[in-house]
Design goal:
The chain is α/β, with parallel strands linked by helices and 461 residues long. It has a single domain (47-227, 276-455), classed as Alkaline Phosphatase, subunit A, CATH 3.40.720. It has 15 helices and 12 strands. Helix 1 crosses helix 10 (251-274).
């Protein structure tokens, strides 16, 4: 068990145990505001935000960033049978990087991601090629012989979601976004607002001491829905509030009271701040759940100075990517929502004057097979991802273009890509931009020490 899975401190125990002791109606609100951090703080004088857009289910990489050069497209179309995108339809979203890929390789955005093309052309969007979960650099021969450590339970949704977010399979107790939060939360004016989840709950944002603050698309989640009565009784509601916030001699009750008071105080603080950034003022966003999540993140960023935040890590998500069938119908809809929401978010950060201080990136369980299974694709491994923001060195590709087809050096079966760039390198690059000291990277990312330090930073920010 790693040190990230073994936090036995008194406060961690109380957070995980004591906050669950009273009425169930209160627990989502209380647990989202667990505790002020105990980690040594890094000092930040400016503002920066990391925004993870996680695509649950395993996004189909081949129809997200399809190959366009004639030879690569022919191999792609042969493997994809009736789910390949038409090459003529890709001409309008062909990516023309400032540095051409070797061998004449070319990629296009999925047509339904066309909203992202102007951001790429402006040099503020970068695709990262063949990225995935690894423990250490791995060749196909090593994979086949199992002669190196591999991520456990490959191709399993829950485990690979967790491994991408936490460097540990399902059951991990902290993620690398939360561990980044550990470094900064004591230096934040609002420690409990360091890690913010607009999508419910994810191990990515849980640190060893930092806990995620869950916020809805309409604002912070109110205790008892701000109701003046409970079960029809004002007395019951006021009694419950009193029980939750009154300090008592029992250490569990005392800790719970501190958490509850802090939760109520934070709710008031955030609600008050957001009143100055009403949703109606953020009019670039289209309708849709992912867009609503990113709108909420934009509103929180807009009031970060009022809340005293210097470093914030956000998480939003889109589900529905487990497309074993109906890929041709469903994937374009997902890409439209993704592209339009990310474009609206980027444009809003430009309007707010913070685009160079906000870096957005995608993640997913895994990629999918290149080979179709009639009208869908199956669980894979490596995938293509995007990094977006004013600080991004875009209009170019990062990572290594994989060979396309079955049986290649990059294929472990059915066009499942063996990653050539690891999530740890991706995360280390983002963490370094965010201000995590080099000496802290091995704490935030337990596997990064398996890579040559010269490869820790991929250079996209």
């Amino acid at each position: 068990m790693s040190c990230f899975e073994h936090d036995q401190s008194r406060r961690a125990f109380l957070r995980r145990s004591g906050v669950l002791g009273l009425a169930g109606v209160a627990t989502p609100f209380v647990t989202s505001l667990g505790a002020i951090g105990e980690a040594a703080a890094a000092t930040a004088t400016d503002y920066k935000a990391l925004v993870c857009v996680f695509l649950y289910g395993g996004n189909d990489y081949a129809n997200t960033l399809p190959p366009y050069d004639q030879a690569s497209y022919a191999a792609y179309a042969a493997a994809r049978q009736n789910i390949a995108l038409n090459r003529d339809a890709l001409a309008a979203t062909l990516l023309n990087p400032t540095t051409a890929l070797a061998g004449g390789r070319q990629y296009a955005l999925a047509p339904n991601l066309s909203a992202l093309l102007p951001i790429f052309n402006a040099g503020k969007l970068a695709p990262v090629l063949n990225l995935g979960t690894l423990v250490q650099p791995t060749t196909k021969q090593q994979y086949q012989q199992q002669s190196v450590k591999l991520p456990p339970k490959l191709f399993s949704h829950n485990d690979q979601q967790s491994y991408f977010q936490a460097s540990n399979p399902e059951g991990a107790t902290s993620g690398w976004g939360g561990r980044i939060g550990d470094v900064f939360q004591n230096g934040n004016g609002a420690a409990s607002l360091t890690c913010i989840n607009a999508s419910g709950n994810a191990v990515y944002l849980t640190g060893r001491s930092a806990l995620q603050y869950s916020i809805g698309t309409g604002g912070p989640i109110a205790l008892l829905s701000n109701s003046a009565s409970l079960f029809g009784s004002q007395t019951v509601a006021s009694t419950l509030r009193s029980l939750m916030t009154t300090q008592g001699p029992n250490m569990f009750a005392a800790e719970h009271a501190k958490v509850s008071r802090r939760a109520l105080d934070t709710y008031t603080q955030v609600t008050g701040a957001l009143a100055g950034a009403p949703a109606a003022n953020f009019n670039l966003f289209p309708a849709g759940n992912l867009a609503d999540q990113l709108k909420m993140v934009a509103r929180m960023i807009a009031v970060s100075a009022e809340l005293g935040a210097k470093r914030q890590v956000f998480f939003v998500s889109q589900g529905g990517h487990d497309l074993h069938d109906n890929l041709v119908t469903s994937h374009p809809t997902l890409m439209t929502a993704l592209g339009n929401a990310m474009k609206a978010f980027y444009d809003t950060t430009v309007q707010l004057g913070v685009s160079d201080r906000v870096t957005t990136f995608t993640g997913s369980d895994f990629g999918r097979t290149l080979q179709s299974n009639d009208d869908g694709s199956d669980h894979g491994w490596g995938s293509m991802h995007f990094v977006m923001g004013g600080a991004v060195k875009g209009a170019r590709f990062y990572g290594t273009p994989p060979a396309i087809g079955n049986g290649t050096a990059d294929d472990v079966g059915q066009g499942r890509l063996l990653p050539t760039t690891s999530v740890d390198q991706y995360a280390a690059t983002l963490a370094s931009w965010f201000g995590v000291p080099t000496g802290e990277l091995t704490t935030v990312l337990p596997n990064i020490g398996n890579y040559n330090p010269s490869s820790w930073n991929l250079g996209f920010v």
